[in-house]
Design goal:
By secondary structure, the chain is an alpha/beta fold. It contains six helices and eleven strands.
């Protein structure tokens, strides 16, 4: 069941810059972050040059040790950060999971010099390293840190589950010494699925999409599930019959698809995440 409290416009925690002295590749970029508000009152963010995470930490007596980094979607042009970021983060927090909403750099907004494979991927890798670096402080099990992405953010999350390392043990920046492999991944109607690869080291995957989404998602996710099955890596797929793209987590979602967060929580419990 989706709790109403998770959908209310509560004040968000303070975000944490992933590179306080400036992100590599963003040197000299001083444009301010842009926020527009839709007719429904949802916040949409662009012009991101200082990647960050906003932490939603459960009460200590509720914390179960799991953590998830959430990458909202928006076509790599903007971030729809409410129904694909803050709402899911509150939902997880209420269930004892530490959640971190990621603002990553956008490769397809006008005049962008960023790329998905370099800067957006670097941002989510840095977020994973950062959360691991503070795992003890935040009562997080460093082996139960996953990623979740919606639409374009799903592509970013999927890339982090394909391209990872064990950290640089000699780095002067202690955050960079941390591994950046996610322990699990949840892809919610992710875009550009044809480029997703599976290796023997890929983390377990949970997938959600709608039957009426575009083919690279509605068909592509079935094909991705098959790849994971053939590779022998645990995978769970939910294709809901009614929705198309972008349903995310909203208080007015209805029908079977409104239960997808509960299915994800059950999956996480099944695999001890």
């Amino acid at each position: 069941m989706i709790l109403l409290s998770a959908m209310l416009p509560l004040e968000n925690p303070k975000e944490i810059l992933l590179w306080p002295k400036g992100a590599p590749g963003s040197e000299g970029k001083t444009a301010k972050e842009n926020v527009r508000i839709t007719e429904k009152g949802e916040h949409v963010i662009s012009s991101i040059h200082t990647p960050s995470v906003t932490p939603y930490l459960p009460e200590p007596d509720k914390a179960n040790g799991a953590a998830i980094i959430i990458a909202p979607g928006g076509g790599h042009r903007e971030l729809w950060i409410d129904h694909e970021g803050y709402n899911p983060a509150r939902w997880f927090m209420e269930r004892g999971v530490a959640a971190f909403v990621l603002k990553y750099r956008l490769a397809r907004e006008p005049n962008s010099t960023y790329t998905i494979d370099e800067h957006s991927l670097m941002d989510i890798q840095r977020a994973i390293r950062y959360v691991r670096s503070r795992a003890r402080e935040w009562k997080i099990n460093p082996h139960k840190i996953g990623v979740m992405g919606f639409s374009a953010g799903g592509e970013v999350a999927a890339l982090s589950a394909m391209r990872f390392d064990n950290g640089n043990g000699t780095a002067s920046d202690t955050i960079e010494r941390q591994p950046c492999r996610p322990d699990f991944q949840a892809l919610i109607y992710p875009g550009n699925s044809a480029r997703f690869e599976v290796t023997k080291d890929s983390p377990p995957i949970f997938i959600v999409c709608g039957y009426n989404d575009r083919d690279d998602i509605s068909i592509g996710m079935a094909q991705l599930f098959e790849k994971y099955k053939k590779a022998g890596i645990p995978a769970e797929l939910h294709i809901y019959g009614k929705p198309g793209h972008g349903f995310g987590l909203r208080g007015d979602n209805h029908g079977a698809v409104s239960g997808w967060p509960d299915r994800l929580a059950e999956w996480m419990k099944d695999f001890n995440f």
